[in-house]
Write a structure and sequence with these properties.
This is UPF0102 protein GV68_12665. It holds the Pfam family UPF0102. Belongs to the UPF0102 family. By secondary structure, this protein is of the alpha+beta class. It has one domain: 3-Layer(aba) Sandwich (Trna Endonuclease, Chain: A, domain 1), CATH 3.40.1350.10. The protein is 39% helix and 31% strand. It contains 3 helices and 5 strands; from the N terminus they run αβββααββ. Strands 1-2-3-4-5 form a 5-stranded mixed beta sheet, sandwiched between helices. A hairpin with a 4-residue loop joins strand 1 and strand 2.
Length: 119
């Protein structure tokens, strides 16, 4: 049974994981354009940019890499793609941007793991 307390704790862990992932991407030369971008269609944890590449990132805090990647369901992927379409539609430079969908796994006691083109 999920209690309010456990839900808040999980939400807090998720936000910390998103910040860690954002710092990780900054150190890799990406610019962070949005954190927790929300639309009616869905939410994107991070939107980053490197050159003419827009990267839509789902962040998962899990005990293992496989668990993190597998946690991004087909339904979640569909919502992220729909939200990215909305974000791109609001960008005047969208026509010249390439796009990619990544997963960053935040693992206990380790550096985050970046899975490019995860879906």
């Amino acid at each position: 049974m999920v209690t309010d307390r456990s839900r808040r704790s999980a939400e807090r862990r998720g936000h910390v994981a998103e910040y860690l992932a954002a710092v990780f991407l900054l150190l890799k030369g990406y610019r962070i354009l949005a954190l927790r971008y929300k639309t009616r269609s869905g939410e994107i944890d991070l939107i980053a940019r490197k050159g003419d590449l827009a990267v839509f990132v789902e962040v998962k805090a899990r005990v293992g890499e496989r668990e993190a990647v597998d946690a991004v369901s087909a339904t979640a992927q569909k919502r992220i793609r729909a939200a990215s379409d909305i974000w791109l539609s609001r960008r005047p430079d969208a026509a010249r941007l390439s796009q990619r969908y990544d997963v960053i796994a935040v693992l206990p006691g380790r550096l985050p793991r970046h899975f490019r083109d995860a879906f």
